[in-house]
Write a structure and sequence with these properties.
By secondary structure, this protein is an alpha+beta fold. It has helices at residues 7-16, 48-65, 88-93, 151-165, and strands at residues 19-27, 33-40, 73-77, 98-107, 110-120, 125-130, 133-138, 142-147. The protein has 2 domains: 7-77, GMP Synthetase, Chain A, domain 3 (2-Layer Sandwich); 88-153, Ribosome maturation factor RimP, C-terminal domain (SH3 type barrels). The protein is 30% helix and 37% strand.
Length: 166
């Protein structure tokens, strides 16, 4: 999976603040937005305060290092319920969930997969079930992947929200 050029600059700072850097993405060419997705390491939901805290620190860092030549907007957000899967640990964490995967090379004559994550092994091969057919997808060949919103996922999310409110 391709890393954004700013990952190496931003990730240690985000980690030091106690968060996980999920993805860095530049959106748009003219007046681009630098989108930084973060998640909490403790598994709790990201709050607006979390995003604001990380945004302030990253803004200062980016002002100091000035790695982007043109004017841009910084956006720090949570990965959301249909989160991208950008690390092997994400595939392990979301085993059993439905996902979409696009690969950079053909695997068994296809590049797009929609099905259920079964597991990921130490060699970083994702076991993926698509309509009863099993695929072994090397993590190194994943171009894009994300969780698919399903009724099952929404129910688990609502149950987790209810527990937080108790």
């Amino acid at each position: 999976m391709n890393k954004h050029p700013l990952n190496d600059l931003l990730e240690p700072v985000v980690e030091k603040l106690g968060y996980e850097l999920v993805r860095v993405l530049t959106i748009g060419a003219k007046n681009p937005t630098l989108q930084v997705m973060i998640d909490r390491k403790d598994g709790k939901d990201i709050t607006v305060d979390d995003c604001a805290k990380v945004s302030r620190v990253l803004s200062d860092l980016l002002d100091e290092k000035d790695p982007i030549e043109s004017q841009y907007a910084l956006e720090v957000s949570s990965p959301g319920i249909d989160r991208p899967l950008t690390k092997p640990e994400h595939f392990a964490r979301f085993a059993g969930y439905e996902a979409k995967i696009e690969t950079s090379v053909e695997i068994e004559k296809r590049k797009r997969f929609k099905g259920r994550i079964v597991s990921i092994d130490n060699a970083q091969n994702i076991a993926f079930d698509m309509d009863g057919v099993m695929y072994a997808i090397p993590f190194a060949d994943v171009a894009k992947a994300k969780i698919v919103i399903t009724d099952e996922l929404l129910k688990k999310y609502e149950e987790a929200q209810a527990e937080v409110e108790l």
